[in-house]
Amino acid sequence: MNSVEYPYWSDRIEEISGIIYQVASQIRSATKKLSNKDMLEKDYRVLAVNIYKTLDHWTGKTYVGMPKDKAIQKAFQAFFIQLYEYKNVETADRRI
Length: 96
Fold this sequence. Notes:
Layout: H1 13-35, H2 41-61, H3 70-95
Helix pairs in contact: 1-2, 1-3
């Protein structure tokens, strides 16, 4: 699993949305690995940092009341859907 870096400038829409989709894909992969109990600790740590960076970008580079680019909106929707699924798998795993 690769670590991601968001660009400093928020006008690089294609690059930013690509990174968000990459993290969403990593979450989807991790969800499958967690279901099979096949997740490496180092991958888990990279994923946690990537999720943190994505949430940090959401809270630090997007603003309430300012319309977001459609590509960014769609990428964040995909990210949050995968994050929700990941949370459900991780929570279910703890109940066992």
